[in-house]
């Protein structure tokens, strides 16, 4: 049976995962990363990679699925940020 | 016994939680939010709030602790972004 607790958990996971999509779209479109923190995206991308490894190690499909998507989005944003720093665009 | 799996899980949680600290510091210092997505921070803050409610409902101290910190950091960034939009600073 799906409880209210489960629904809140699913909603939480969907919202925090989906949230990185509009940021990735904005960053890809504008290429502007001046107000994005390099440390944030470096730590966050590494953290999501660990979540993915954790999900794989306990074979939890929800953790694997959510963190695979977030990893792609976060790594994309991080790559544009690093590119901009290397090209002195901030 | 703490397993390798547990350590990866803890590392993942610490990294994804801590990552919002440098972003919050940068945003508070510079007040620049031009390249931050409003949709991202709106969805993310709501998602973290749901994680907190979920953690409270299953009485999981780790989920409550991590998401309380992230909620404060994400809500701070979101507030500055909304303030900037209202003041036409982007």
From TrEMBL, chains A, B:
Any single GO CC term annotated in Swiss-Prot or TrEMBL for this entry: membrane
Instruction: List the source organism.
Output: Candidatus Methylobacter favarea
Q: Which InterPro entries match?
A: PQ-loop_rpt, SemiSWEET
Q: Where in the cell is it found?
A: Membrane
Indicate what this protein is called per its UniProt record. Sugar transporter SemiSWEET
What NCBIfam families does its record include? SemiSWEET_2
Q: Where are the transmembrane segments?
A: 7-26, 38-56, 62-86
The UniProt keyword set, sorted, is:
Membrane, Sugar transport, Transmembrane, Transmembrane helix, Transport
């Amino acid at each position: 049976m799906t409880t209210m607790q489960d629904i809140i958990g699913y909603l939480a996971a969907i919202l925090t995962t989906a949230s990185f999509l509009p940021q990735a779209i904005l960053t890809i479109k504008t290429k502007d990363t001046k107000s994005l923190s390099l440390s944030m995206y470096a730590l966050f991308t590494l953290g999501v990679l660990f979540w993915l490894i954790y999900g794989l190690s306990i074979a939890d499909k929800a953790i694997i699925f959510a963190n695979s998507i977030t990893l792609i989005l976060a790594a994309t944003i991080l790559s544009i940020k690093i590119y901009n720093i290397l090209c002195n665009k901030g």
